[in-house]
């Protein structure tokens, strides 16, 4: 709920009867989005600014919550709506649906967060068999009146009464075919009148009732339908995709109608104050003459660029440009605007902070700083790590040999390759089978959302930058090309015909470039992103478009680095990864997994160590491993000279270093059947059987391995200490930290630490070098988190291993559950997101928070970090900042994301503290 404490908003202990459920547009403001929804709050703000907004009122999200909780509207709501409707009628000088000169209204959804096309809208409410005559007379245009009436029945039938929309579409197509025309604007009044009769018959047949003639019944049913649409399948799916809470509810906006379908001097459009695809300033948007707003976003007719409005209606164009400048300066951001022109008079129907592509977000943020509209801290809130990660994806190689077959509007950038599919069901089905797909449609609608999520990219033959496909794709970060008119899409026959007659069948590979709008046959090769080249040091800010983006990213990263408190380290196991991480801005290594050093050629040595029967055999294996380990660490310390390197001692379950039991059994059986020598294999098989575990992840691993196999951990500690001494002798600055894995009790840590301290002392004496090797532990078991205060007595640092901590807290085996039931859990809303992707704040997070607090109570200077995969997740980084960790550690590729989010976390928490 908004922090603006309105006395009419339900607070704890407030009765529903005392709550105000309806606000006139003159009563609200843009800061009441929790209560009035984004659309209602912004309509109120534009009204306050004196902009031309049609009068109306907003039913609050509180009313929606009561309705969704109880199944009934609040008792006071009808009377409040009646009072506001009466005031609206007095202001407009006409009554809702009256026969001679009817007031018509739209009923639109409006949640706090933009959910384009996901919830319901009904236009032209108030039209009936009687009032349509009055509208025709008042407008002096029979065609307009009957067109508006058929639109009402079509939208109301589908949205409110649940009639299959295809029935109306088929009837409309049949009417155009009978008239031998291709667009609905060519239908005349008599044609539309017949279509109204047909539409009413469809409603009667499908619903068993007549289309309602009472205008108040129309409005009340439409309001309920908008409330219900909050829990519609597509709305719930969109919220899960965008991580929007499910308990917010939607507001409902009742607005007096203005008409863009009154002829060539009327129209409707969508405008952006900057290009949402690139961020460049200019005139961007779409306009459609003689149309209502839904025609533009539905993409059913191709629009003209907004710039052409200057030739069509210069007065309205000039006024719109002035309003756009006013709104951008007022909101201090890219604004997305819906407008209608009614016989030369401009009306503003909506504004909101516009969705944009990742590249546009970075460009716009820096532009607004340069214009003095926002400061650096605010700029950081305008971009995010997910957008930065998107910019680091590869792009198409323009020098490759390609076969371009079409070009549309570059609606949402990216390089997408996949098999052509022509409906959402197939897109989802194939995607779940591991296929990459491109969803191809004439135009998308909200029912296509699940297919759009499943696809690598979206291609449509109709629509522009403000069509449903474009807006939703930009919001999701999906590659999208819209309005490729030269491509003939036949969804029924599941094919697309390209210029020259070539046919793309379902399953054929195609490539689409959302940055240029180009469409190619086959698979186009990709090249690294310029942003990755920048982080690698191969590209520097410059003048062309790619370099302009790099400059924006460079500046935002500099902002973040200046603001952030959290340090960012890398998960890296060798010098090559460490060097790359350092180029990406890593401030050390937070996790070096030494088990990765033992694979390959060294696996046999480890195998011999584990299976050794005598102390002599064990010492021989350790002696062979020591110089190899030392060399690993020397290279790592050299790559990360002057920065901390946290080395985790051997952690994996034993089975990872032993032969597969089934494969070994087969080898022994074959040898026996052939009467071949197999003493070594048999001995090995017996040992594998002896060491076999039903659940290796909870078995002999981590600190348990070090305690059971004498000399294993001390060999590793000696290798670390000798490598550090060698680097110091070479005038280097090694900063090694030794991490003991899978500790569950302080006694385990104390035993290993005593042994380690003794080894370090021996190396110091032998080399004459003073070594400062911090020793700490991973917190990855619930018991470790719960006894963190005790464990801190023996640990100089904690590193939270959130991968294993998540598994052990939830009782999940990650390798199994993600493939088996996580999809169902996500679809049912049990998870908003996988707990392995974003930290579970309530469960795993609460253990991290309490362990950090307990550890520092015991040891105030205890260093705290995280080295699970959550260290590179944007939302999780904010949590780690909030609970006071010192650093996060993640894979090299995620380091820029973590740096950016650490800066954003510092800014947003400072803003919260200030408020």
Please provide a brief summary of the model.
By secondary structure, this protein is α/β, with parallel strands linked by helices. It contains 36 helices and 31 strands.
Provide structural commentary.
By secondary structure, the chain is an alpha/beta fold. The chain has 36 helices and 31 strands. The strands form six sheets. The chain has an eight-stranded mixed β-sheet. An eight-stranded parallel barrel has the order 24-25-26-27-28-29-30-31, surrounded by six helices. Strand 16, helix 18 (about 470-475) and strand 17 (about 480) form a beta-alpha-beta unit. Helix 23 (about 615-640) runs parallel beside helix 27 (about 710-730).
Gross morphology:
elongated
Whole-number radius of gyration? 33 Å
Percent of residues in helices comes to 40-55%
Main beta-sheet strand count, sense and barrel state: 8 strands, mixed
Strand content: 15-25%
N- and C-termini, Cα separation: 15 Å
Which structural class matches the secondary elements? alpha/beta
**pLDDT < 50 runs, ≥5 residues:** 1-16
For the largest sheet, list the strands in their spatial order: 12-22-21-14-15-16-17-13
Number of strands: 31
Mean pLDDT: 88
Number of helices: 36
Protein name: Pyruvate, phosphate dikinase
Catalytic activity: pyruvate + phosphate + ATP = phosphoenolpyruvate + AMP + diphosphate + H(+)
Family: Belongs to the PEP-utilizing enzyme family.
Cofactor: Mg(2+)
